[in-house]
Write a structure and sequence with these properties.
3-stranded parallel beta sheet, 285 residues, alpha/beta, globular, single chain
């Protein structure tokens, strides 16, 4: 029977460490603060923003919510980011995606100061990640590595297959794994002979956004599987449920797997808060 890697429990533990770090910063006269920018009224974005602000409060991190109308125009958003970049009381800036049509998300994210880019999406932070130098790491890949650390002591020589080549998860997690001396193959749903490639892996990170793509026969006995996918599906009876990229019910022969929900998801927000603390600590130097 595969062990379940409990992302909720690990996120709580990371949250406790973050709260302790926040208390230390406040003792030194620094109040960590995260600015969250929401443009428009996307229902899913509203939920994510409320959740992030709520977690900030739990950790003692100040939250600054900035809301703009969907038709505000790109320049208004860029001007707001410039203001937040210049505000020394703000240590992290997060622009909630997706943005309304007509606003260039890449240009907006590039405008955020790399030192305050707690999502880790700025090209400077991406470059630092690729060279193994000091930068803010994207939250989901950072959370994935913490989950893997709970079941892996030594990555050297491990065969890791990453399924998904996104800039948010696939590529950065591959770079983090390479830094640990793993041998990494980055694939995607168009990769030929993908089941055969996956079956040779000691570790699979599934981040393709394809429900139940990874079947039991794709996974060799004793492999570790990190399921990043999250898709809401509606059953024949009309009930909805959240599923991942892996058919977890077929993975009893794996060594360890992350559940969906309750695996990678909780770690993403926990790492966002951790990144905010890291940004605040670096602002002191």
């Amino acid at each position: 029977m595969a062990a379940l890697i409990d992302g909720r429990a690990m996120a709580r533990a990371l949250g406790e460490r973050t709260a302790q770090a926040v208390a230390g910063l406040k003792a030194d006269g620094v109040d960590p603060a995260l600015a969250v920018v929401l443009v428009g009224h996307d229902p899913a974005s509203e939920i994510y923003v409320r959740r992030k602000i709520g977690e900030c409060r739990k950790a003692g991190i100040g939250s600054i919510e900035k809301r703009l109308a969907a038709d505000c125009g790109e320049q208004v958003l860029l001007d707001l980011i410039d203001t937040l970049n210049a505000d020394t009381a703000v240590h992290g800036i997060l622009v909630q995606l997706p943005l309304p049509a007509g606003i260039d998300a890449a240009r907006v994210l590039d405008r955020i100061s790399p030192a305050k880019d707690v999502d880790g999406f700025h090209p400077v932070n991406v470059g630092r990640l690729s060279t193994g130098s000091k930068g803010l790491v994207p939250c989901t890949p950072l959370g994935i590595m913490l989950l893997l650390d709970s079941v892996i002591d030594d990555y050297r020589g491990l065969n890791v297959v990453v399924i998904g080549k996104s800039n948010i998860v696939g590529k950065p997690v591959a770079m983090l794994l390479l830094e640990r001396e793993a041998t990494v193959t980055v694939t995607h749903i168009e990769t030929r002979n993908l089941p055969d490639i996956a079956r040779a892996a000691d570790v699979i990170v599934a981040a393709a956004g394809a429900p139940h793509l990874v079947r039991g026969y794709w996974v060799k006995p004793g492999a570790i599987v990190i399921d990043v996918g999250i898709t809401r599906m509606v059953d024949h009876d009309g009930n909805s449920r959240i599923v991942g990229d892996c058919a977890t019910h077929e993975l009893d022969h794996a060594k360890a797997v992350t559940p969906v929900p309750g695996g990678v998801g909780p770690m993403t927000i926990a790492c966002l808060l951790s990144n905010t603390v890291t940004a605040a600590q670096r602002s002191m130097s």
